[in-house]
Amino acid sequence: MKDKRPHNLSDSYSPASAGFSVMSEPIAALSTAPGAAAIAVVRLSGPGSFELLEPLLIRRSEAHARMMMMAKFIDPASGEEIDELMVALFVSPQSFTGEDSAELFCHGGPYIVQRILQTLFANGFRQAEPGEYTRRAFLNGKMDLSSAEGVKQLVEAGTHQQWIAARQLATGRFSETIEELRSRLIGALAFLAARIDFPDEGDTQDVALETVVHKVRGVSTQLQKLEASYESGRVAAQGLMVAIIGQPNMGKSTLMNTLLGHERAIVSEQAGTTRDYLEEPCRVRGRLIRLIDTAGVRETLDSIEQQGVARALQLAEQADLVLLLVGSDEGPEAYAEIEKIATQIGSNKCLRIQTKADLRKAQEHAGYIAISAMKDHGLDLLEAELVKRVDGYVGQLNDQPFVSSARHHQAIQDAKLDLENFFEGVKAGAYDEMLAFELQNATRALGGILGVVDVEDILDKVFHEFCVGK
């Protein structure tokens, strides 16, 4: 559809759009990956973008909002034609940021991109800060905070599981759930506010506390379900945390390097080489794993190594899965030590690995996966088990919204605690004002997920629900 505004770019700019943005400076940045490519996209946004862009273009077709036009990009200082490109215009507020915006589709040679950006910066634009486009979209009301976080996760998603977690945020599906729960709390709070502020009105006298409790209990049940989804959601978004634990020289660092496909950890026959932990993301058959190589667990008088051992055991407690390594040529004492660690951290989250299976002295033990990282033996069985563990978490995620962010999880826990305080207050016969205080806190906690905290919502609900006549 053609833009109804005049077709000069500068005429497409309006002062009203300047007031729409909280961040008023026009910005520019490369939106595609740096380096040589067939096409590169340079994005512009901010009040005055069209006005500043106008003298830099020689248009070969008319300018229409949300439609491509051909143009030559020139350097006004020298009059030199830098590139022939395509331009798309997005008029405020119908743009990603909510501001007047443009996208320049130029040839992707590094020199061309550099010249275009330099020319833009010399003619009124400034370099956009990391994430500034999405930040402007949030500040201008184009998306809520959780959706903005989802955009970042979509860009960074490297596996199907990460894409699932990011997409429910970026599409607004998760925020719709949170907003619905928040609205229900505001409704319950409106009833309480009416009982407190307008006690003499006939409508408010008929509001029973049981009605408020019923509304809040439904929200509390939903929050419990969301909280329970966090472990699976976290694994989907951040990967399965896998700690590699064992005594020194059991092949922990060798196994990590093998799974990564490159040398990350130092491998040495000298015991105690790894004194601190190393963490690296790793993809195993399309699943994201966070591998953690730890210091060898043993009795030692070295104070630094003691700290490494303590940290290794602490990481084992925190991990989703622990790979307990023992050499196939080790005696019964080493295997007994492995079982001791398994008992300490929980046997159900441990996977027992028998390393150096290529040695002549190797003896198989029941319940252990025998591998040789050097000979690529048994690694397919280990990878299959890792995939099974990841899918065990992610497979629990159904079509219902789930929590994948630590920030969201904390906010939901805070809101849940506030509602527990509310129920305790009801049981103790607390005043409506105290009950309202707990509901306000829960509402703010959920609003924090969305980046929205507005007490006017409560007042609007009160005056909408009741004819108070005041």
What does this structure look like?
The chain has 470 residues and is α/β, with parallel strands linked by helices. The chain has 3 domains: 27-143, Probable tRNA modification gtpase trme, domain 1 (Gyrase A, domain 2, 2-Layer Sandwich), CATH 3.30.1360; 147-234 and 405-450, tRNA modification GTPase MnmE domain 2 (Four Helix Bundle (Hemerythrin (Met), subunit A)); 239-294 and 307-394, Rossmann fold (3-Layer(aba) Sandwich), CATH 3.40.50. 47% of the residues lie in helices and 17% in strands. It has helices at 15-20, 49-53, 110-121, 132-139, 145-156, 160-170, 173-197, 202-205, 209-228, 230-238, 252-260, 303-318, 332-345, 379-394, 406-428, 432-450, 456-465, and strands at 27-30, 37-45, 57-59, 68-75, 80-90, 101-108, 126-127, 240-246, 278-284, 287-293, 321-327, 350-355, 369-370. The chain has a 7-stranded mixed sheet with strand order 3-4-5-6-2-1-7. Strands 9-10-8-11-12-13 form a 6-stranded mixed sheet, with helices on both faces. Strand 3 and strand 4 (68-75) form a beta hairpin. Helix 7 crosses helix 17. The model is unreliable at 1-7, 10-22 and 458-470 (pLDDT under 50).
